[in-house]
Structures are given as structure tokens and as C-alpha cells.
Amino acid sequence: MKKILLSAAALVMLFSCQNDTTETAPETSAVAKRGCASQEVLAAQMKADPTLALRMSKIESFTEKAMLSGRLVNGNVEIPVVVNVLYRTAAENISLAQIQSQIDVLNEDFNATNSDFSATPALFSGVAANVGITFVLQNVVRKSTRTTSFSTNDAMKSASKGIAPTTPTTVLNMWSCNLGGGILGYAQFPGGSAATDGVVMDNNAFGRTGTVSGVYNLGRTATHEVGHWMNLRHIWGDANCGSDLVSDTPTHDTANYSVPAYPHYSTCTGTPVEMTMNYMDYTDDRGMYMFTNGQKSRMAAIFVSGGARAGFGI
Fold first, then answer.
1. What's the pLDDT tens digit per position in 263-305?
2. Signal peptide: which range, if any (predicted)?
3. 269: which of 56, 91, 95, 144 lies 20 to 30 Å off by Cα?
């Protein structure tokens, strides 16, 4: 397992030295592999706002200190959720049942009550975590749109073309819309603008009933993206043998797709068995089913007094 020791300067480099391109969404696209654009969106936001890297560096320093001191919340965090539905067709206007199914999945996955949690290999059973965070659907906002498909430029979050977020300092905003470019979803990391804060998902990967289809039909896109919203990185650190800033996850070569056979070995130093079933990898929905204690501590740190999302702490 990894030992994380990074200076603030190194963190600025980590956050800012990423691919600064974003995809332009075509009118239609089929998702062949899981596509999360959170890192690309972050790179674009940093290019537009050089102070964002410094804010995120401060959040990282605070997170490290909170984790070292044990000054974390006791798991008593309840997240109100507002789901913003943008639709051009009747199918895109997803039902309340489909929306509630997504909230149910989040509650299962973040409380280790998902039925597949028991499939965690013995090698990782000692670090598999019950994060202890719950989600409550507060409201659903719907709006008809003429937009065929949205890209990652946050247009769906504007009042003119989409739906502006509801009190984002105390409410998790989720947008369901038709995303192009082969993107299933993306999230804004802590430290970004309140005007664009939240999680965006393609309507065909939202929840586990209704319009969902293919291998992304169990609601795990939202689990992955909410993980980013709670300050988790991709498990491979968005670089070959990169760091996700968590000490108890193995070092991964890169993203994993489909459902790799276990054990799947990394070629990074020490050739560890990769944690392909972690929610922050890129496997199919049925292939991901756990967070770790290190990820739990990292998420919990943002909710303590002084943390980036302290407004949600109870």
C-alpha cells in the first residue's frame, strides 16, 4: 500500500499538470468504455482560474492534517440532494422512480449495504469501508431544453441554458441530461465555484431502472462521481502508476475497464494486486463495489469544521 507524502507545491503540480483538453460533444454517441470527465473539467477550470490550484492545495493540506489528527466527523453526515432534470425527449425526462433508485444506490454504496460488498476479496477485506454517509432526495427540478446533447462546459448548470444549482454549499446538486462525447458523467472537486458545484450524469446511466442500459445500469456512475465531489481521485492517479493520495489503495498502472479477472496484477513497483473493484476505477458497474478506509477518511475530512464542505456536517 502507498505512503502519501506530498508538499503543497507538489500538490499544485499534481492538480494543474493534466491534459487541458475537453471533448466537444457530438449529437449522438455510444459509450464503449466508462468515460468520466472530472479530471479534464478540473484542468479546464484551473486554466481559466489560476487561483483554483492554490485553493485545492489548501484543502489538501487541511485534509492531511485532519486525517493525521483524527479530527474527523463520526459518520453522521446527511446529504440533501436536488436532482435537476434537463430533457428534450420524453425518455430524457426520467421518472421519479428512476431518480429515487439512484439515491438508493448511493445510500447502499456509501454504507456498505450493497449486496456485492460481500464479494470483496480477502486481500482487501481489512480496508473495505462503510463510509457512513447518507443521501436524502430533497427536490426534483425539471426543465425542457432544445439542446440535443450537452458537453462538459457546464452549460446545463446555467439558468439560461439549463438549471442553476440550489444552495450548493448545503445541497448536493445532480444534473441528469443527455451527455455527448462518450461521457457518462463528471463532478466538480471541492474548491471550485459554487455556481457550478455538483455532479452531472448522462440520463442513461442515472440510477438502476427506467432508461438505464448496457453495463452502466447499476447507478455506479453516480457513486464514482460523488466520490470525486467528496475529494477522491481516480485510483490510478490519472497517470501511469500515479497517486490517488490514499495510502491503502494499491498503485495501478492505469484505468481498468470491463470486469478484470481477479487477481489483476499491476506492473508498478512491487507488482501489487490492483483493486479493480474500487468505485474510483473505470470498471463496469457490476465490477465495482467498495471504498477503502483511507478513502473514507479523505472524504470525511471535507465535512469537519473548517473543511471544504463543512456546511453539510451535522
1. 999 999 999 999 999 999 999 999 999 999 999 999 999 998 8
2. 1-21
3. 56
pLDDT for residue 99: 98
Q: Residue written as cell 481498468?
A: 256
308 grid coordinates: 471544504
Peptide bond into 121 cis (omega under 30): no
- Within 10 angstroms of residue 195's Cβ, the number of other Cβ atoms is 12
pLDDT band at 27; cut points 50, 70, 90? very low
Pick the catalytic residue: 60, 64, 92, 225?
225
Residues 105-117 have pLDDT tens digits of 999 999 999 999 9
What is the C-alpha to C-alpha distance for residues 18 and 185, in angstroms, rounded to an integer? Answer: 18
Per the annotation, the verdict on 225 as an active-site residue is yes
Q: What are phi and psi of 285, to 5 degrees?
A: -55, -40
Q: For each of the domains in the chain, give its residue range(s) and CATH number, in order of start.
A: 37-51+75-312 (3.40.390.10)
The set of cell numbers assigned to 262 is 481477479
List 1's β-bridge partners, or say none. none
**pTM of the entire structure?**
0.86
CA distance 42 to 231: 12
Which pLDDT score is estimated for 150?
97
